[in-house]
Write a structure and sequence with these properties.
heterodimer, A: 383 residues, Helix Hairpins, 2 domains, 12 helices, 1% strand, B: 608 residues, alpha+beta, Immunoglobulin-like, five-stranded antiparallel β-sheet, four-stranded antiparallel β-sheet, outward rectifier potassium channel activity (chain A)
Chain lengths: 383, 608
């Protein structure tokens, strides 16, 4: 019994030491590689991906039963229309031209509906088992092109419940996705800026503008080689996609993952470029109309001053100097009017103490006593 | 003012002109092609239909004599003409596939209204796709048109959105001020100085909008505003359509969020109204993204740098510090603009004030109200807090007033016994002076005092003081005053008990911090005041006092005081010591009274 107890205690001690080592290694890893900001950005991206996948599942579950219902209805309507046409033809051959005209118009009107066109294509034209419009991959393309507001319109919700869900989904998802893309873009822009020098901002702007022009051409070439459309159509499609126009008039054969990556990278690139180049234009136009030529430069310098004040001397000193600056600013405005204006704050002079400077035991550690650190008596007293 | 609006109008006008020119070019490039395409497909349909009918007739004539029964004849004719019928139907389907929405009664064509609708929704990146360029020239022009037009349109929309957001900030600030005034009236507080008007009538609109930027706008209000706009636009647009409200709401939101599926299409008569609502909605949505997204984007981006500490209080403190930093940076930017405007409008200001000499002068027109400048910050902690003196049942405290944006400062003091966990915390509120005497304390106890400054925007951080109270029989409220650089005067009050039996007092003092009490020097004092001349310059001294009663007993020692003398001072007119004064002092014999210094420099000790 004693031997087994000793062995158990040894085993417990070993496990405790291993746990402590494990925790220590985890903390050292976190501190060593600075995983905090990376975890935040990754969390933001993963939340966007989860939102798109969840939305795909949601819309698939809402719209797929509706699609099946509408397909059966469409097939039945097409068959009824055909039988009616055949009956008219056989009953009176003299009126065949009129019957054909009526049938053509009705057929075209029915084909306006996307579900009807889809059912007609697979059931009557190709004589195949009809494919589903709403599969998980098509739903994923749909949700991705909704939150990146491209909106091809290949498929879309038709039920009232689906449409209301889409309104809420877009109102929440579009800000989330745009913030994530802008954050990722800012991260990439900081990398490029750090790599090519902080002082000159023209070089990163030129780099991003060239990338923006090159990206549709390269993607257009890849699409042209893999798909069956021409090069200009490929460039046209990629350009209208990354600018989130999304006409939906071309349907190249792409993998879902390739489509999503293409759209995300393109929109991020557009966001970075417009943020670098167009933000300067917006500020220039916005402030130029107010006759403040150098307001932005001076405001920038004041921002830097505020940051340095806060960082170095703390909030109290910053506020004090800010107050001094404020009085200076006020004096600029009333230079000749009020020369003898009194200050709002008068130096403190207590009545019961006529110039005495004494301190209690605890006040030796206050702010005033720190100024006289060179005093030998203080050192004697403390020692 | 005219020049301020002219640049914005010029930018908007250039965008509108760009849209119209693009519409005309697309109309020229694509209009004929679309018409030709539709005619071609219609001709094909008619041709296939005619072929089908001819085949039907020929088969019927050929097989008329074979079948005696009419039903069998019809069945045979149907079987023979299935291929032609399928060709005819396929032609109809491919025509629909080639030109979507192309064969309705109100099908979209490339007329001027549809072209403008197309280019506007293209440049705002909505992109319905009802009509889209299909020729080589149209698509090539579309590529170039987008590369130039989309940045221009985005800049214009963002500019208008920025103007709109600043106007909303201004209105929000005015409402906030009115709510504050209403609350004050409701509480019955009547201020002695009524608030000056925040903005004068003669001020420029630009300065007002610049100033309003300090207010932090709630993000949910922006979302709510956009949502309400969407609901109203949906209700208005469906007036001309046959849509249900859900369809209209769906169309409006998919449009103003620039998704643009293109499954629902407005009718030709309603196209201008729809375009107006969509463009205004896109501007509102851009304002929403710019205000809220940009604000939170910075916080998200830079918050990741400080996640090393998992302490929630640390994160909360960092967030508060960041908010203050942002407010201060805004203040400095505001000040910079104020300086610029002051410099610009100096002549106008002088001219205006010369006209209004009799009127009451108000503050600078650049910064009319100091409250506004400092953006509702709580005050700083009071500085130079110290205990002036203590007795058995009272403590006197004093401090210097701190900086505060609002001049109406009050102070709150909480105090309790230091080391007693069950001690009751007492509180004094609304102290307006810089000194206070707290009366309800116990003798021979250690007390902790917490002092904070308070204004209407918040409370400052606390300053803590810890102090012992005196015994009841000791001299009370010992106060040390420095008469010269090296002369100290001690004054005190009699004990609370046995005050009539006090014979004299004994004052202990030393200049050696390491000395024990038996090594201290002591002198008897008959009154309640003693002066110590000719002390060492720039040195620490410790003083303590005790009372001697008539029956020979002594009171406990009082609290020790630490006093520091100043450095030596030289005057130009007095260097050295005159022998004449020594001779005069030795000749005249003064009577001994309370003001005579009993201690002389030659004495080492003095026994009672």
């Amino acid at each position: 019994m004693t031997v087994s107890m000793e062995e158990n205690s040894k085993i417990q001690m070993l496990s405790a030491t291993s746990k402590d080592k494990k925790v220590a290694t985890d903390r050292s890893l976190l501190n060593k590689y600075h995983l905090g900001p990376l975890a935040l950005h990754t969390g933001l991206v993963l939340s966007c991906v989860t939102y798109a996948l969840g939305g795909a599942y949601l819309f698939l579950s809402i719209e797929h039963p509706e699609e099946l219902k509408r397909r059966e209805k469409a097939i039945r309507e097409f068959q009824d229309l055909k039988q009616q046409f055949m009956g008219n033809i056989t009953s009176g051959i003299e009126n065949s031209e009129q019957s054909i005209e009526i049938y053509t118009k009705k057929l075209i009107l029915m084909l306006e509906d996307a579900h009807n066109a889809h059912a007609f294509e697979y059931f009557f034209l190709n004589h195949e088992i009809p494919k589903d419009m709403w599969t998980f991959s098509s739903a994923l393309v749909f949700t991705t092109t909704t939150v990146i507001p491209v909106g091809y319109g290949y498929i879309f919700p038709v039920s009232a419940y689906g449409r209301m869900c889409l309104i809420a989904y877009a109102l929440l998802g579009i800000p989330l996705t745009l913030v994530t893309m802008a954050d990722t873009g800012k991260f990439a822009a900081q990398l490029v800026t750090r790599w090519f020098g902080d002082n000159n901002m023209a070089i990163p702007a030129a780099i991003f503008v060239c990338l923006l022009f090159a990206y549709p051409l390269v993607v257009g070439f890849i699409l042209c080689s893999t798909s069956n459309i021409t090069y200009l159509d490929s460039v046209y499609f990629s350009l209208t996609s990354i600018f989130t126009i999304g006409f939906g008039d071309l349907t190249p054969d792409m993998n879902v993952i390739h489509m999503v990556l293409f759209l995300a990278v393109g929109v991020i690139l557009v966001t970075i470029t417009l943020d670098i180049v167009a933000a300067e234009m917006i500020d220039r136009v916005h402030y130029m109309g107010r006759h403040v030529g150098k307001a932005k430069e001076l405001a920038g310098k004041m921002f830097q001053l505020a940051q340095s004040l806060n960082m170095k001397q703390g909030l109290v000193s910053g506020v004090g100097q800010l107050h001094a600056l404020a009085r200076f600013g006020m004096l600029v405005g009333r230079e000749e009017v009020d020369k003898t204006q009194e200050d709002g704050i008068i130096a403190f002079s207590p009545d019961v103490m006529d110039g005495l400077e004494f301190m209690d035991t605890l006040s030796i550690y206050s702010r005033r006593s720190r100024r006289s650190a060179e005093n030998s008596a203080r050192n004697l007293f403390l020692s | 003012m005219a020049r301020f609006l002219s640049l914005h109008v010029l930018l908007i006008g250039s965008v509108v002109l760009y849209i119209i020119l693009g519409a005309i070019v697309f109309q020229m490039l694509e209009g004929e092609h679309l018409d030709a395409l539709k005619k071609d497909h219609m001709a094909k349909i008619e041709q296939n239909a005619k072929d089908y009918v001819d085949k039907l007739w020929s088969v019927a004539k050929r097989d008329r004599d074979k079948y005696k029964n009419v039903e069998d004849l019809i069945k045979s004719v149907k079987e023979d003409t299935v291929d032609d019928f399928n060709d005819y139907v396929d032609t109809v389907f491919y025509a629909h596939r080639a030109v979507r929405h192309g064969y309705d009664e109100d099908s979209p064509t490339w007329d001027f209204a549809n072209s403008v609708f197309f280019t506007t929704t293209m440049l705002t990146s909505i992109g319905y796709g009802y009509v889209a360029p299909s020729t080589f020239g149209g698509r090539l022009f579309g590529v170039i048109y987008c590369l130039i037009g989309i940045p221009l349109t985005l800049v214009t929309v963002a500019n208008v959105a920025k103007f709109l957001s600043e106007t909303i900030f201004f209105l929000h600030y005015e409402l906030w001020n009115k709510c504050l005034e209403w609350k004050r009236k409701r509480k019955g507080e009547v201020e002695a100085d009524p608030l000056q008007p925040m903005f004068g009538d003669d001020e420029n609109e630009e300065e007002i909008l610049d100033r309003v930027r300090l207010v932090r706008f709630p993000p949910l209000t922006v979302f709510f505003f956009v949502f309400v706009y969407g609901c109203i636009a949906a209700w208005v647009v469906r007036y001309w359509e046959t849509w249900t409200y859900v369809e209209s709401l769906y169309f409006i939101f998919i449009s103003i969020l620039t998704v643009g599926f293109g499954d629902i299409r407005p009718s030709p008569g309603n196209i201008w109204v729809t375009l107006a609502f969509v463009v205004v909605g896109v501007i509102l949505t851009t304002m929403c993204m710019d205000v809220v997204g940009r604000m939170y984007l910075k916080e998200i981006h830079y918050l990741g740098r400080k996640l090393k500490s998992s302490n929630p209080f640390y994160l909360l403190r960092e967030a508060k510090a960041r908010r203050r930093r942002a407010a201060m940076a805004s203040l400095l930017a505001q000040l910079a603009k104020g300086m610029i405007f002051a410099h610009k409008d100096y002549n106008e200001l002088a001219r205006k004030k010369s006209k209004r000499k009799k009127e009451k002068r108000r503050g600078s027109h650049v910064l009319p109200n100091e409250k506004f400048m400092f953006a509702r910050l709580p005050p700083d902690p009071p500085s130079d807090c110290q205990v002036v003196s203590t007795s058995a049942y009272s403590v006197r405290l004093a401090w210097a007033p701190p900086f505060s944006p609002d001049p109406d400062l009050t102070y709150n003091i909480r105090y309790r016994l230091k080391h007693n966990e069950d001690a009751k915390v007492r509180e004094l509120r609304g102290i307006k002076g810089n000194t206070v005497e707290i009366m309800s304390v116990d003798s021979c106890s250690l007390y902790e005092f917490r002092i904070t400054a308070h204004n209407k925007f918040g409370e400052s951080k606390a300053v803590y003081l810890v102090q012992y109270t005196e015994p009841q029989l000791s001299p009370q409220h010992i106060l040390a005053t420095r008469l010269n650089a090296n002369t100290i005067e001690l004054t005190w009050e009699p004990p609370y008990k046995k005050s009539h039996e006090v014979k004299n007092y004994v004052v202990y003092f030393t200049e050696n911090p390491n000395a024990s009490l038996s090594e201290w020097e002591k002198i008897p004092v008959n009154g309640r005041r003693v002066v110590f001349p000719d002390l060492r310059f720039d040195w620490f001294y410790m003083f303590s006092a005790t009372a001697v009663f008539k029956d020979g007993q002594r009171s406990p020692l009082s609290r020790a005081l630490f006093i520091k003398t100043d450095k030596i001072e030289f005057h130009k007119h007095c260097v050295g010591h005159s022998k004449t004064i020594d001779v005069m002092d030795s000749i005249c014999e003064k009577e001994d009274n309370e003001t005579t210094a009993l201690l002389k420099r030659d004495y080492v000790s003095f026994a009672v």
